[in-house]
Amino acid sequence: MKRLFIFLLTNIAAVAMLTFVAYVVCALCGVDMSEILEGGGFGQLAVLSFVMGMAGSLVSLFLSKKIVKASMKCKTIDGTEGEAERWLVSTIEDLARRANVKMPEVAIYPGEANAFATGAFKNSALVAVSTGIMQQMTREELRAVLGHEMSHVRNGDMVTMCLTQGVVNTFVIFFSHILASVIQGALGGDRNRRRGAGGYAVYHLTVQLLQLAFGVLASLVIFWYSRKREFAADAGSAELLGSPAPMIAALRRLGNLQPGVLPDSIKAFGIAGRRKTSLFATHPSLEDRIDALMNMPPPYAS
Question: How far apart are CA 223 and CA 269, in angstroms?
Fold first, then answer.
């Protein structure tokens, strides 16, 4: 619950900050944003909402590799460091060839069992594994995990999640302003009173409260899509390896391991999941993922 609260707070804070910056810039330029929204109608509001909604997601996407490398203490490898590193690089190289994408950067980071993929483009991605998962999984299981992450890369999930988050943010901002205007119009009396300092303060406070409420509801869409994408990545691993058995074994192994914690920005792209799921979970339950793989119809090879 704490991590869910931090995730929601981070996204809401980003939207609120962008809104505040927009108001400050307009004020410094002598432009009243509230007047623009009143006079420009839905068109200008939609454009402003789109810009503010997408900005944070796009910045996060394009800086994802640099941020993750620094925050997770990732060590990029090329296979010359040792036998384990050589196997890891050669395995990812083989999977990249099978997935028809360019070889991603490969990294190892200290921590409990987990792995993730990130990057703005599928042909310049980063795949990283923890020291814990390398030590506690067999190579066949780890190969399945790498197939899962390479499926994320092949499917362009990082970009799709970014765009989905940006679109959701856009709708949250847009409808927060619309509903705030409706509420103020119903409660604020005549137009001159609404245009006063007190009216503006109430309007902006209402917008922020509505963004908080809409943000929580909109996050359900993001979490739902993230869970669907996990099923697809599991199936992609089975296709790349030619059988669902290694991925099933890897998921069962994960159920007996302490999963490593990832930053919220890349948590949806990690391999580890909980045994139980919820509406606010980025991953389906391990049992549901295993059941989906067991019921996956052949042929498995892509």
Answer: 12
Model confidence pLDDT, tens digit, residues 186-210 = 665 544 444 555 666 777 788 888 8
The span from the first CA to the last CA of the chain, in angstroms, equals: 39
Q: What is the DSSP string of 16-36?
A: HHHHHHHHHHHHHTT--HHHH
Q: Are 260 and 112 a contacting pair, CB within 8 Å? A: yes
Catalytic residue ranges: 149
**Residue ranges per domain, the chain?**
1-69+156-302
What would you measure as the largest C-alpha separation in the chain, in angstroms? 76
Cα separation values, 197 from 24, 167, 193, 241, 287, Å: 15, 31, 9, 64, 56
DSSP 73: T
Residue 6: strand, helix, or coil: helix
80's enclosing H/E stretch is none
Residue segments in the chain with a per-residue pLDDT below the cut of 70: 1-43, 185-200, 263-265, 267-269, 272-277, 299-302
Kindly give, in sequence order, each residue whose CB lies less than 8 Å from that of residue 32, ignoring residues fewer than 6 positions away: 26
Contacts of 215 (CB under 8 A, 6+ apart): 8, 11, 12, 15, 172
